[in-house]
Design a protein that fits this description.
By secondary structure, this protein is an alpha/beta fold. Helix 7 packs across helix 8. It has two domains: about 80 residues, no CATH class; about 130 residues, Rossmann fold (3-Layer(aba) Sandwich). The protein has a five-stranded parallel beta sheet, sandwiched between helices.
């Protein structure tokens, strides 16, 4: 029953249901080959092996064993009805950044938030962590940026204002690190990457080869980052 339930669930929910729909349409329209292609493509891109394949070049990051006087943490979204107000992606970044700042006794700079509400949420989370685990870190907030390029630009302006040198630990999700490094280096920073929040997972069971929304989500973010890297390298 477990095997049957996994198969039924995979093809009754999104994206599996669309794999079935495209196959059905292949026999009902004159675009048979195109519909079969869409079905196969959607199935593949929604499986764990393919999402891992897409993520590997992004998350394969060389960890540099150097020190920096500051740690910069990139924002990644908030929720406002949880104990912690940061999204899951952002929360991992904050915890890792705070651990580095606390251990090495250096300031943490949070960048992101657009109109400012994200910074308020992050302040709440950092205060909660400080109180719960009895530590303190000096924290600065850049709250004007709305994307990675702006993160780098406005953080550079903040560093200039504060008189900080531009050698930093950069903390963001592993799949996002390579694009972030491009933008921060363009802004004059010497970047020591400290990735967290890895999406890839190389342990497999048989149903990882069935379509799933989780794998499609990971594939989406991988493709999104590739487009972002192209834009950062050649268009910005």
């Amino acid at each position: 029953m477990f095997v049957i339930s996994k198969i039924i669930t995979a093809f009754l929910l999104i994206p599996g249901i669309f794999v079935i729909i495209f196959l059905f349409l292949a026999f009902k329209t004159k675009y048979k080959k195109f519909m079969i292609f869409l079905s196969a493509f959607l199935w593949l891109i929604s499986t764990k092996p393919i999402s891992n394949l897409l993520l590997y070049p992004l998350e394969n990051i060389k960890i540099i064993k150097q020190k920096a006087p500051y740690v910069v943490v990139l924002g990644g979204g908030v929720v406002n009805k949880d104990i912690f107000r940061s999204s899951a992606h952002q929360f991992k970044r904050i915890v890792y950044g705070a651990s580095i700042a606390s251990r090495e006794k250096i300031p943490l700079i949070f960048t992101g938030g657009g109109v400012g509400f994200e910074s308020k949420m992050v302040k709440h989370d950092i205060k909660y962590l400080e109180k719960s685990f009895n530590f303190y870190i000096k924290t600065y907030f850049e709250n004007k940026s709305k994307n990675t390029r702006q993160n780098a630009y406005f953080t550079a302006k903040l560093f200039k204002k504060l008189g900080f040198n531009k050698k930093i630990y950069l903390v963001t999700s592993a799949f996002h690190m390579k694009r972030a490094m491009i933008d921060f280096k363009k802004a004059g920073f010497k970047v020591i990457p400290r990735p967290t929040d890895y999406l890839s997972n190389y342990t497999y069971v048989w149903y990882d080869f069935l379509p799933s929304m989780e794998s499609l989500y990971k594939s989406y973010w991988a493709l999104h980052e590739y487009l972002g890297i192209i834009k950062a390298k050649f268009l910005d």
